[in-house]
Amino acid sequence: MAGLPGPERDPVEVTAAGAAEPSAMLTALTTEHFVLQTAASSTIAEASARATLYLLALSSALVAIAFTAQSPAVFMPFVAAVLPALFLLGVFTVVRLVDTAVENMQYLMGIARIRRHYRTLGADAARLFAPETGRWPEAHAVPALRLGVRFAFFSTTASMIAFINSLVAWAGVTLLAGRWLGEDRIGVALLIGALTAVLLMAAFVAYQRWRFSDVGAL
Fold this sequence. Notes:
By secondary structure, the chain is mostly helical. It has one domain. It is built from six helices and no strands.
């Protein structure tokens, strides 16, 4: 009936419910921390596997090209088929390596948010989970940034594969230009190949900067 007091809750139950909420929150944060750390590790493993796959394909192709170089009739058709395939594999590898780097940074940012909450659990927690003892983006004096952000930007796995892939493009364009221009103008063919490699590397740098800017890494 209206006006009658409702059933009172047991003070013990109220206290238990209040204590259970922080405990449940901490359990959820710990679980999320573990999931994010596992996901971050998986991006590193994937990047390593993709880079290794590309380098293995490149080394195998170079060995095969060396064998076909003994026969001019086979060399050019073989190179014309292999180098474009290697270049495309490199492009796909680089794009995915940038993706994994961005994903890794997103996971590290999530871990940093959880560590920020850990620091509110007490005086000891504030000391144990201090930003200086964490990783990027909390700690700024990390080894990867010791020589500056720009150097760290060019030392990524994606940058390494992009540079090697640009050399593959250089070789392919040089051979193609030399075929068209003739052997007496090999210097011009080399210049065209070098210009192509520089343009490709510049395009990669612009692409990686654009992707990294999405997560505030620059």
